[in-house]
Write the structure tokens for this entry.
Amino acid sequence: MKAAAQYGTDTAGNLSFKMHELSLAASILESAVGAAKNNNASKVKKIYLDVGGLLMVNPEQLRFGLEVLSKDTIAEGMEVDIKKIPVKVKCASGHVSTLDPEINPLHNAPLLRCPECKAKVEVLGGRELILKKIIAE
Ligand SMILES: [Zn+2]
């Protein structure tokens, strides 16, 4: 599963971040449960997620969202493995770098600059949210 980057650009602060993780958790859960059912599984044991650094996901909040939303589903009690994928950028001069974006507090959005020349950059990777593997039975 892939989802487009949805990092917050509003000014609602923490609330928007929690809503963000909760909506990501809902779509992850739907994919995991759907895939398990398609394979005639009755229980999701564990899922492996690749989460791009640009999604600005708090792993603990994502875990919590999945735990809450999976209650009374076949995914209740599943383990969640979250791997953070670094943000990869390229500037107009051709510098390719990986970085941990800083958050611009005014916009709640990542500030992305080339670490070498401070120019604006094009994002090559780090926006992905991938449900990589599901262990079900
Ligand atoms: Zn550069």
About this structure: The first strand starts at residue 44 and ends at 52.
